[in-house]
Amino acid sequence: MAPSAGPASSASSAGSAGSARPVVHTYWETAGATMTFTHPLDQGLLERYVPRDARILDYGCGYGRLTARLEELGYGDVQGVDPSAAMIERGLREHPGLKLTRQTALPLPLAEDSFDAALLFVVLGVVPGDADQNALVAELARLIRPGGVLYLSDVPLQDDERHLRRYEEAVASAPYRAYGTFSTPDGGLFRHHRPEQLRALLHGNGFVVEEERTGAAATLHGHTARSVQVVARRAPAP
Length: 238
Prior knowledge:
The protein is built from 8 helices and 9 strands. The chain has 238 residues and is of the alpha/beta class. The longest helix has 14 residues, at 130-143. The radius of gyration is 17 Å and the shape is globular. The protein has helices at 7-10, 17-29, 43-49, 65-72, 85-94, 130-143, 161-173, 195-203; strands spanning 55-59, 77-82, 100-102, 115-121, 144-154, 181-183, 189-191, 207-218, 224-234. 33% of the residues lie in helices and 26% in strands. Strand 6 (181-183) and strand 7 (189-191) form a beta hairpin. The strands form 2 sheets. A 7-stranded mixed beta sheet has the order 3-2-1-4-5-9-8, with helices on both faces. Strands 6-7 form a two-stranded antiparallel sheet. The protein has a single domain, classed as Vaccinia Virus protein VP39 (Rossmann fold). It starts with 6 loop residues before the first helix and ends with a strand. One of its GO terms (molecular function) is methyltransferase activity.
């Protein structure tokens, strides 16, 4: 789960995460905090772009699943942040010794250019509003040094009947939300994206896509969905 943007974002229109944020945050302190995250980390892809001595930010780390995995792989300087108190508490119980901290708003209290790489795994999918997504990626661009990389994993728009029905029902009930945004019976609010939307979001904040892969991953609710993973590099300083 991702930290929310600061005061400017909370004043955004009804179509942004500003209106949905209380629901989303409540979910990740309750039902969402018990979920098992499943998007796979591609070790080969990671190692191709991120050396073992890199300083890495696991942004929206949840209970530290990937933070712990990175340490298992020999990455010794990894920091996880998440706004959910329940998630961070769970992470510290399951993985004592990890560097996990709760941060509830942007910007984070971290220096610019202080990371060589950042992970953003299925975070945009729980930040439905365009303005909040842009603020989030802009913050990562601030934190990642020029030439550093962002490794993103998320869920694109699905084309099966169940998801198409979900998207259409969501548009009918809340037309101010972006297409691909939908709610789940347990109170979650999610968004699926067109891959070109993700690329535009990255490009608009100074990232250059280095590699993009598609695959499949289990969802939080036990289904299988198409997934997309992108490695993007922050443009070097001129």
